[in-house]
């Protein structure tokens, strides 16, 4: 059975000192590097938030405060600080992430009008990123998923992975939650287990 490691959004803006820093995010990087060193993956894929500066998910572009919600193209949209803007330092992968074995990069969130938490598709399920096509082309059946943040991009990537027919495993030690609300990370784990995703300790 061919397997791939999906590394979600390990970018400067989500790490320590970033515009949308995930608590303890930097702690997952050595774990992810160790996974790549100790395991044989047929593919290693990075996803990368890659927003235009005028993205509608940014509070600054809607005259809103960070943390408010709006309806954006028919779906609820949390208002985020500006982050992972195309071509900026914040959008770059963290320097400590070992990319020697990476075989593919998927960029998401490029459409100004709709956010894209999942590595597979946007939040409206209108546009695919090409990740599913890439994995199917390479006969991947098993996905192991790590990265940032557990309660948003990792959760939605896991959910779409299992919906697309992959055996899906989440490495608990390879992810951290934003926890906009204190229990978001815990609730995400429960939700993923109920969907049939294996959580590796």
Automatic annotation (TrEMBL):
Phylogenetic lineage: Bacteria, Pseudomonadati, Bacteroidota, Flavobacteriia, Flavobacteriales
One Gene Ontology molecular-function label: metal ion binding
Source species: Chryseobacterium antibioticum
Enzyme Commission numbers on file: 3.5.1.19
CDD domains the record matches: nicotinamidase
Any Pfam family: Isochorismatase
InterPro entries membership: Isochorismatase-like_dom, Isochorismatase-like_sf, Isochorismatase_Nicotinamidase
Pathway: Cofactor biosynthesis; nicotinate biosynthesis; nicotinate from nicotinamide: step 1/1
Domain Isochorismatase-like: 4-180
Family to which the UniProt record says this protein belongs: Belongs to the isochorismatase family.
Protein name: Nicotinamidase
GO BP term, example: pyridine nucleotide biosynthetic process
Keyword set, alphabetical order: Hydrolase, Metal-binding, Pyridine nucleotide biosynthesis
Gene, per the UniProt record: pncA
Highest taxon in the source lineage: Bacteria
NCBIfam families: PRK11609.1
Leading EC class: hydrolase
């Amino acid at each position: 059975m061919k397997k791939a490691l999906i590394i979600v959004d390990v970018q400067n803006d989500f790490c320590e000192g970033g515009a949308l820093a995930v608590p303890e995010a930097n702690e997952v990087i050595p774990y992810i590097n160790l996974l790549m060193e100790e395991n044989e993956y047929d593919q290693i894929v990075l996803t990368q938030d890659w927003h235009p500066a005028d993205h509608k998910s940014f509070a600054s572009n809607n005259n809103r405060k960070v943390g408010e919600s709006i309806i954006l193209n028919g779906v609820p949209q949390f208002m985020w600080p500006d982050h992972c803007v195309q071509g900026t330092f914040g959008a770059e992968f963290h320097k400590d992430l070992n990319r020697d074995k990476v075989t593919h990069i998927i960029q998401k969130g490029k459409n100004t009008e709709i956010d894209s938490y999942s590595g597979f598709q946007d939040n409206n399920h209108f546009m695919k990123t090409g990740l599913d096509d890439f994995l199917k082309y390479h006969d991947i059946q098993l996905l192991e998923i790590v990265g940032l943040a557990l309660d948003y991009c990792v959760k939605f990537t896991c959910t779409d992975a299992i919906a697309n027919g992959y055996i899906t495993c989440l490495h608990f030690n390879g992810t951290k939650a934003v926890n906009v609300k204190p229990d978001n990370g815990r609730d995400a784990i429960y939700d993923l287990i109920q969907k049939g995703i294996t959580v590796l300790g």
